[in-house]
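Reminder to self: tokens first, then the designed residues, so the page reads top to bottom the way the pipeline ran.
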């Protein structure tokens, strides 16, 4: 996981903790990342000798087959069209990343992202469930450097980088956070937030 990804995840955890008690439409500013408590949803990841268990029940090849049969226009953006996503899935084995899975209400959801091979820049992320022995998409999100992660109280969080025209790829101006609640076997979008990143002393521009 890159340093940029680790820092952005800390920002998202701070947002979730600061807004779990109530909802708001106001933009939030994050001054600096802080440590957070463990989420209610459990996440599991691979160990060096445990890759097969981590991918259970569905390997990337099985998930790729399902995604290629899916209407990917739902996760397409102006920057990444449906044809772009299909090209990555078809031509790049390393572009479908298996990430830590989620367990919600006793059900396991595998977490896969379609990303660039070089720097793991994700433009589509999927929660995959076991539907009578076959992989099925439970939640699909698209965006700029977008990832799904476990939230609080049985939720999933989609974190997306917000880039201004002059932002370098390493340093987005902020993050968008969308929360999805699991209800009656489906994920339903709940609160959404945006956070600006306060520049550090080294990043501030002096007149």
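Designed residues (207 positions):
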């Amino acid at each position: 996981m890159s340093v940029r990804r680790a820092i952005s995840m800390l920002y998202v955890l701070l947002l979730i903790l600061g807004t779990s008690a109530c909802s708001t439409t106001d933009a939030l500013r994050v001054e600096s990342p802080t440590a957070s408590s463990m989420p209610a949803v459990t996440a599991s990841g691979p160990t060096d000798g445990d890759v097969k268990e981590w991918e259970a029940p569905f390997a990337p090849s099985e998930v790729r087959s399902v995604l290629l049969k899916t209407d990917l226009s739902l996760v397409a953006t102006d920057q990444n069209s449906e044809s772009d996503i299909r090209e990555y899935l078809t031509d790049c084995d390393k572009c479908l990343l298996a990430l830590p899975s989620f367990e919600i209400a006793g059900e396991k959801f595998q977490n896969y992202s379609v990303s660039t091979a070089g720097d793991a820049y994700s433009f589509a992320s999927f929660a995959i469930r076991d539907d009578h022995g076959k992989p099925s998409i439970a939640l699909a999100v698209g965006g700029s450097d977008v990832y799904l992660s476990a939230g609080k109280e049985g939720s999933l969080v989609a974190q997306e980088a917000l880039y201004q025209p002059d932002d370098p790829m390493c340093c987005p101006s902020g993050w968008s956070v969308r929360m999805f609640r699991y209800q009656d076997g489906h994920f339903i979008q709940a609160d959404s937030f945006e956070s600006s990143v306060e520049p550090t002393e080294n990043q501030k521009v002096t007149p």
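Residues 3-19 form the longest helix (17 residues).
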